[in-house]
Amino acid sequence: MFKHLLFLICVVAISYGTGMGTLQFIENYLDSKNANTYYDTFGDEASLEKTRHLELQKRSFSSPDNFTVYGSCELEDEDIHVIFSNKNNGFQVNTIGVGGTQSIIHAMNLGAIHDNIEGKKIVFIATVNWFKEGGIKRQYFTGNFSKVKYFSFLFNPRLSDSLKKRLAKRILSVPKEKEVNYDIEKFYARLYLLENRRSGILRSIVDPFYRLYYKLSIVEDKYFAYKKLQEYRKKGLPEVIKPVLENHDWAKVKSIGGEKEKAISNNEFNIRDRAYEHMKARLLEEHRFIYPPDSPEREDFLIFLEVCKELGVRPLIVYFPNHGKIFDYYVQKFQLE
């Protein structure tokens, strides 16, 4: 029996060593090709694949004049990127997030970065209607989830064990999506939460597998960075954008707003007439339970803030009034009720 067990351990050790060695070789090759290259123009992109990958986000933090803004659907608006493009304000804004990228995803985005982050300033755009009963929708979670960031968070030596357990507990609470399988990640989260001796032994046994799985996700992520950098090279883009300071024509922007006001006449919420007619019947039910005090999003937001604290990051929290007149109307209505 002992001989069989020893043989099995040797096979696992050899397989682990071979797999880890192969992945390390590929990672070193990709590092040599990327050679710490970074293009400022990456900051102007708004895409799901950008949000889910890590390597180029890490390089943005290493650039002295890059500034990171975390948010969700508002970062997909072209007007934002027009204002910040070409370092119009003297620095490069790197936007991270698309629709449905909420606090728990951004907690992993930030917590996955181990180096060159202490003392950095960031902006975090939170949205009021995230704080609904049930918190983040499972399709938004699975759509934005990144295994490389998840494991990089859990293996980050600068984050406390208690914070990692809070993340693990939150991950387990997200309902399972039929089309997406996160059993590997959730199993590790369960092990992380168990305190007994047996779980410690089991974690020691499976830890090499997860280290290998994590290394594979790093290689995949760096391959994405390699392809993205190759794309920029082929376009002949400069790595560093020289600041082009310019004044925005706010009078023109205001005049455009004035033209659009002409399409509003049948409601007090500044919603276009046709849109209001289409949506007014369901407005009340959609916004009725927008502020429950026990929303899971509250804990997600607190996890994000704790990540900032433990990493020494200085966040500016921005709340957009997602159609403030509607929210004000229903808050007053609920208070009267």
Summarize this entry quickly.
The protein contains 14 helices and four strands.
Describe the global form: globular
Number of helices: 14
Number of domains: 1
How helix-rich are the residues, as a percent range?
55-70%
The helix-and-strand class reads alpha/beta
Radius of gyration: 23 Å
Q: Order of strands in the sheet with the most strands?
A: 2-1-3-4
Number of DSSP strands? 4
Secondary-structure element sequence? HHHEHEHEHHHHHHHHEH
Q: What portion of the residues fall into strands of 2 or more residues? A: 5-15%
- Rounded to the nearest angstrom, the distance between the terminal CA atoms is 72 Å
**Residue windows where pLDDT falls under 50 for at least 5 positions:** 1-13
Polypeptide structure, described:
With 337 residues, this protein is of the alpha/beta class. It has one domain. It contains 14 helices and 4 strands. It has helices at 2-34, 48-52, 55-62, 78-84, 103-111, 138-144, 147-154, 161-173, 183-193, 197-235, 250-261, 273-287, 296-311, 324-336; strands at residues 66-70, 92-96, 121-127, 314-320. A 4-stranded parallel beta sheet has the order 2-1-3-4, covered by helices on one side. The longest helix is centred in the middle third of the chain and has 39 residues, at 197-235. Residues 1-13 have low confidence and may be disordered.
